[in-house]
Amino acid sequence: MPDNSAPYDPAGVPPAQDSGGVSYKLDDIKRDQASHKPPPARDREPWQPFRSRLDFEIAELALHASLNKDETNRLISLIHRAAGGREPFSLTSYKEVSETWSRSSHRFTAFEQTVISVPYRKEEHCFDVHFRPLWDWATGLLSDPHVGPHAVFDAERLYKYNGHQFVRFIDEPWTADAFWNAQSQLPADGKPLAFIMYSDKTKLSTFGTAKAYLVVARLANLPVHIRNSNGRGGGRIVGWLPIVKESQKDKHKPAFVNFKNVVWHKAFYVLLESIIKYVKTGFWFECADKILRLHFPIILILSGDYEEQCVMALIRGLKSKFPCPVCLVPKDQLSQYGIYASRHAIQSQTVVTTARAKGTVVEKEAKLKEYSLRDVDNVFWMMHGSDVNGAISWDRLHAHGGLWRDHLWKQFGLIVSEMGRNALATVDDNFNALPRWRNLSHFSQVMDISFTDGSKHEEISKLLLFAAHPIIDRQQHPTAYQLLKCMRGFVELDNYTALEVHTEETLTAGRAALKTFSQLMMEYIKMTSNVTINDLDSESALDSENSRLELADAANDSESADSEYQPTTKNWNFPKMHTNSHVFDDIVSKGVMRNYNTKPNEGMHRPLKNIYRDRTNFKNVAEQVSLPTS
After folding, report:
1. To 5 degrees, how large is the angle CA 251–CA 313–CA 384?
2. What own/partner pairs with CB < 8 Å and gap ≥ 24 does 443-449 have?
3. Residue 264 lies inside a defined structural domain of this protein
4. At residue 530, what are phi and psi to the nearest 5 degrees?
5. Residue-range definition of the domain harbouring residue 531
6. pLDDT tens-digit series, residues 316-336
7. Are residues 347 and 495 in the same domain?
8. N or C: which end of the chain has fewer CB within 10 A?
9. 419 & 549 share domain
10. What is the pLDDT of residues 276-287, one digit of tens each?
């Protein structure tokens, strides 16, 4: 048998030969060798069009390191400084750079590590806690000659003349009531050292497998332009809390939920331990101005989203009898405007103590559920002179992310989707036609895009009425028109909450705007109360505070908008519908909203993600991140 049979191509068969085929050995079948040509002349300057090899290598380094425009310009500037001999450059290796950074980090309060142990199911579970001693961090600021002289230690009540009478105005924390009341309880020479604490989980990796549980501290004695900055005197990561892993068998079980709360409060105790020992006695400390003062630490403000607030106050959350961490509003009255009894730390501690004295677990749980409390000791009870419920603060960023994005904006999207594609296109076209303004995003379309950034929703809320009013007729679409009135009421209320200085007059006007918004919402809820739930919006999804439903996938094929669409019946009794009722009380108590806005703190998430991506090996992340954030 031949090794291979290779018939001629019919077009290439010589006339004198049979086209039946010719046999060859496989080894004989090969291509012709390429002709031997001389190699091209060696490129003596392969770095062209760069003027030199050094230019190319520096540009290549910037490219591989993904430096942006500003970073590349800075690198080039530094190289020219070194090359010009104006300044000596002595670093020789990465090791030397790393060791120098380590030595410099000791000038600031460094991270420490400890282990906490919490029992669960007759086993001890250990967790690492990374932290900076709060007292060391705070006194470091007070002794800093660039920061300390700006600190204010005495409460103030400020007034201005409005042409008719003197009216009080409020801005910084020390101009509000809580700081005044705290100092009133101290000895004559006592000074409140007021802390603002923020905590939140964040995803470090793209897929969310790596997470961090951060605690950020700010000193309320410093003015806001320093306190909310990223430089000296600004917010500092002071804690890295443990994240308890959940198994499917433990998920949502009451005992396991309590266990997670115990872990949180034990870990937070590690952060507060250095200041708890001074809450009753105070501590004499000489500040940067060489004045010796008796400082008493207090927790003035607790900042976070609703989930964090529930953990801080140790309440049972969304579906409990009283789901607000600040007051005792019943869960079926969250959508109603009203005044309810406030929660207080002393009251909660008394309830927990009374419940633990009950004879049975059932009786204990019944007592705790009367106030929606958990059977866990609250770490903030140790902070004499501080009230955890009073410290929990309303947050404007999450109001846009919650009430506006998940509810008002969603209802609007459902309405416009049912009106047809022309209506959707008109809203997008109107957004695109709006003139551009400095510091305001320009949107070419909004109706088929899901925005997750609360700041984007804040900007959309300012523009929506101008873009939506041409498609919604008061007579033809009464429900949609009422929703627009609600959205306008929300924006007007938001404008008052965002003021950087409040007077007695603006507070009165703000409370009136809150009442108006609440009344408009009650009318809208009444108008939509008899509408059945459709597939676009389910009650179970809307009951959840964290629901993130999308707008309708497609508009109605019909281009007609003659019939009024009735939005889905939904449950408006959710926490962010209610928390607005506390905003002006918070301003009177703790100063204007920017004193406790989570936006500056959440702005620290992105740099941390960059550190995780660029400077760690994705293992033992807390230890590696602690050096760059020192």
Report:
1. 140
2. 447/413, 447/416, 447/417, 447/551, 448/424, 448/551
3. yes
4. -105, 10
5. 397-590
6. 998 899 999 999 999 999 999
7. no
8. N
9. yes
10. 999 999 999 999
